[in-house]
Amino acid sequence: MAKLKPRARIIRTVGDQLISGPEAAIIELVKNSYDAEATYAEVKFKYSVSEGFSIVVTDDGHGMTYNEIVNNWLEPATDVKADKQWSRNARRRLLGAKGIGRFAVSRLGEISLMTSIAKNDEYIESSSIYIDWSLFSAEKYLEDIELDIVKDVVVGSESTGVEVEVSQLRDNWSKKQLERLILELRRLSLPRSSEDKFSIFLDIDCF
Ligand SMILES: Nc1ncnc2c1ncn2[C@@H]1O[C@H](COP(=O)(O)OP(=O)(O)O)[C@@H](O)[C@H]1O
Ligand SMILES: [Mg+2]
Q: How remote is the CA of residue 22 from the centroid of ligand 2, in Å?
């Protein structure tokens, strides 16, 4: 008996093939916000002298619980959504189906921090997962890479949603790339009805 034993870098090579460019990566994250029944997604470019540029995508959707991150977000090609057509409260027809949003994060930069606030069966829970994607360029076997998720109880707020911050960006984000991003966000004509609002905000003030 033998098994396939993928090296960690398979995650990056597959991801880079599936995501055509950094603009497409951001579009995938915005689609995930839409699928989570958010009323908005905000895409913000930030700059600080110590950390350089980063991209933050924030939404107010239903978020993911700790268990959902572990069993779903961290399981590429999982089939939970493969035959699902409608969002959680059947409000929207899902845009995501191929499970490539996870790779979008690694396409954008080397470091990501995703914080998700979601309601589990009893209370509001916050989970954060930090990923240093350069670990996935190393010789290691995929199964040997361990990721930490920090879990907490949220008291005093009922709001849910996801924030993904990606830093050590892989692209320079030239004027041309930003223009293409604006165009693609505009073109992302999401199928919304009059009672279902979804707004996309883009903040590039730091440039
Ligand atoms: N912003 C988000 N809010 C809530 N859940 C999310 C968000 N982004 C990703 N997810 C969850 O992670 C799963 C994996 O995302 P993704 O890789 O983009 O695949 P999919 O094709 O299912 O959208 C989604 O099916 C969804 O359950
Ligand atoms: Mg998706």
A: 15
